[in-house]
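# nightly structure sweep
# worker-07 picked up a monomer target from the shared queue
# config: single-sequence mode, recycle default, output format = structure tokens
# input follows
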Amino acid sequence: TAPSFVLAAAAAPAPTPEPSIVLKAARLFDGTSDKLVTPGMVVVTGGKIAAVGSDAAVPAGARVVDLGDATLLPGLIDAHVHLTQEMTDNWYRDFANNVLQLAPEKALLAIPYAKKTLEAGFTTVRNVGGDDYVDVGLRNGLEGGVVVGPRVLTAGHATGSTAGHGDGPPVDPHLIAPFGPLDGVCNGAEECRAAVRYQVKYGTDVIKVMPSGGVLSLTHPVDNPQLTQEGTDAVVS
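# output follows
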């Protein structure tokens, strides 16, 4: 019989824990009352906030960052963003660029938008609509530490009717194929159900549904109903 081998791997040394970080500033707003705490101090240990307040204990060996005349506050949450694009005052140029850019290019352009959002103080956002599932890829990159930005809950393609708020502009269908359930555009209960399932399939966190008009659409009034009750019920179910 073949001899048996036992391989004994040397025990790897335990990783050295990173030192705690102490952020100090003139003031702190902790969100538990309407008053500022002075001075402000936040202790971060192991990547998580361990203590907050003017009397927080400073761990031995901690690295202290004195921010001076500043105010510390909890990370902000923006519940409605579109991190994968940035509109300008030239709508037609924006539309042409969006059509001509491939998905990898859109993903690269989204990286600085995410970084700007984090640096503005927003540590969590809800991304409620994006093309080509670039928002899902961006979220995955953020979670994997590949790029820098806030925590993202994303919706993929928003769900709405043909000619509704989530549909594209009235481009000649011989040039650009009309959107369908894969793109979140649906008519009737079965297509609406399929549109939601596609977003779930490709890894979204939330579903955005638009049963009425919106302020940035070119093909419909802002205040009219667009999904039937049956379609809306299918999205919910």
